[in-house]
Amino acid sequence: MKTTIAEVHKHVGKEVTIGAWLANKRSSGKIAFLQLRDGTGFMQGVAVKAEIGEEKFQEAKSLTQESSLYVTGTIVEDTRSPLGFEMQVSDFELIHEAVDYPITPKNHGTEFLMDHRHLWLRSKKQHAVMKVRNEIIRATYEFFNEQGYVKIDPPILTGASAEGTTELFHTKYFDEDAYLSQSGQLYMEAAAMALGKVFSFGPTFRAEKSKTRRHLIEFWMIEPEMAFMDHEDSLQVQEQYVSHVVQSVLKNCTIELQVLERDTAQLEKIQAPFPRITYDEAIQLVKEKGFDDVEWGDDFGAPHETAIAESFDKPVFITHWPAEIKAFYMKPDPKRPDVVLCADLIAPEGYGEIIGGSQRIDDIELMEQRYKEHGLTGPAYEWYLQLRQYGSVPHSGFGLGLERTVAWIAGVEHVRETIPFPRLLNRLYP
Length: 430
Ligand code: 4AD
Ligand code: MG
Fold this sequence. Notes:
Elements: E1 15-27, E2 31-37, E3 42-48, H1 49-52, H2 54-61, E4 68-77, E5 85-96, H3 110-115, H4 117-120, H5 124-146, E6 150-151, E7 157-158, E8 169-173, E9 176-180, H6 185-195, E10 197-205, E11 218-227, H7 231-252, H8 254-259, H9 264-268, E12 276-278, H10 279-288, H11 302-309, E13 316-322, E14 332-333, E15 336-347, E16 352-359, H12 364-374, H13 379-386, E17 395-401, H14 402-410
Parallel strand pairs: 3-5, 6-10, 12-13
Antiparallel strand pairs: 1-2, 1-4, 2-3, 4-5, 7-9, 8-9, 10-11, 11-17, 13-15, 14-15, 15-16, 16-17
Helix pairs in contact: 5-7, 5-14
């Protein structure tokens, strides 16, 4: 009977066949340990000479890394492996022999691995990261669907900027100029006025010349937008959503977190509510942490975010930022118009900002004033203004960066390992 490694627990004591690749192998004179992987997981196959015969045993010993096989054998419990099972091999059939697979079990440099990303994805750690990513995606859809949100797909080709013009990817749209979307937010606001609570989940593009462990040129963002919700309502959605995602990974990715050697005690603490500090308090905090040169009105860099995160064991919201360093659409605090009703959510353990969100300006006159201040003109902004002209309501939304969230939850140092084929400064291949 054909099965997969993920399903072997249903076949203990029975003989099954699995289509697999040989990830690694060890052997002695009498026994060969075959590390098998089939996409669903990793499992050890034990081939004993006395059982499979001299000829088959020699064939097993000469199998090369990443050769593909149909392996047949009996599933037995094995408490030493994360999977909990192994296979006593009775027979195997070579499908294809792989010669000189470039990624050997020794250590390779990152550039070499990145050049071979199409093969590197097969390795145990990368497999685990992709499974965690998939669970975060699954839990995201689950959360927003259960809360009555409608999934909306904003366009990728756009006529204007949503977040500022410095990082736009330009392209030609026949005779017009177009840009790859850096955020679907403006469209999501229109959708929220039509459907109430909406979320998007799609690729976004930033032509940022940043070469850090947190920056990708192409990344995936989840952007919920909610009509009739203010800033505080939005923070509650954010903390519940992030808690749901973390708890889902803990529940459904136990093997993967073990492979990744993730300290799960850190993740267990991630339960709503999350602490909130104002930007003013954050400035104080970083000054106390030794960054004396930081002044009110400065944006925070990675070292500042890490210093702030150190004081908390959950993600922390930094709220009420100076209007002058935030986007044109954020609503000023009525009690203090020099700051806006917004928050960045900073992940623990040095992973930095994973969410940016805000309450949006709903007053048409103030929005027109912001257009003037920011020099925003043209048809691309006219329709956005109309959302304030016809039944304007308080509304809020946010954007969560998928790859930074995967990096944090999986405990991976660099975002390049959290997306199947990363687009980085100076890297468009494979
Ligand atoms: O803070 P950002 O720029 O916010 C927006 O785009 C808003 N329009 C979202 C909204 O309110 N609908 O980006 C949101 C998140 C960041 O917190 C970060 O997690 C991620 O997107 N992000 C990046 N991730 C990887 N590489 C980059 N270059 C990123 N830039 C932003
Ligand atoms: Mg931001």
